[in-house]
Amino acid sequence: MSSGLSPPGSRRRDLVAAALLGPAALAWPRVVRAGAQIEEPLADAVRSALTAAIADRAPPKPQFASIDERLAHLRWLGAMSDKLRKQKTELVTRVEFLETLWYESTRAGLETGLMLGLVEVESAFRKYAISVAGARGYTQVMPFWARLIGDGDVARLFHMQTNLRFGCVILRHYLDLEQGDLFFALGRYNGSRGRPEYPNAVFAASRNWTYPPR
Question: Is the pTM of this model over 0.90?
Answer without folding.
Answer: no
